[in-house]
């Protein structure tokens, strides 16, 4: 998946917006050699590759009622 950066984007924030958590930054840097050279805040207009990560299934929780 491709992502075009906006001025001031941070890899952790991009991961959080795309995947719901920021723990995938290392995979983003591995897919994009040289990305770290821009520093923590990325300039606008870079096209970076994001890893294909499937979201884990959320288990269905039992329903509880306050009034039986």
From TrEMBL:
Domain of life from the UniProt record: Bacteria
Name listed for the protein in its UniProt record: Phage tail protein
The species this protein was found in: Parabacteroides distasonis
């Amino acid at each position: 998946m491709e992502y075009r950066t906006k001025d001031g984007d941070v890899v952790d924030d991009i991961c959080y917006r795309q995947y719901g958590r920021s723990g995938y930054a290392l995979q983003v840097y591995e897919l994009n050699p040289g990305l770290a050279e821009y520093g923590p805040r990325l300039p606008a207009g870079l096209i970076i590759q994001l890893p294909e990560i499937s979201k884990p299934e959320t288990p269905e929780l039992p329903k509880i009622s306050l009034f039986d």
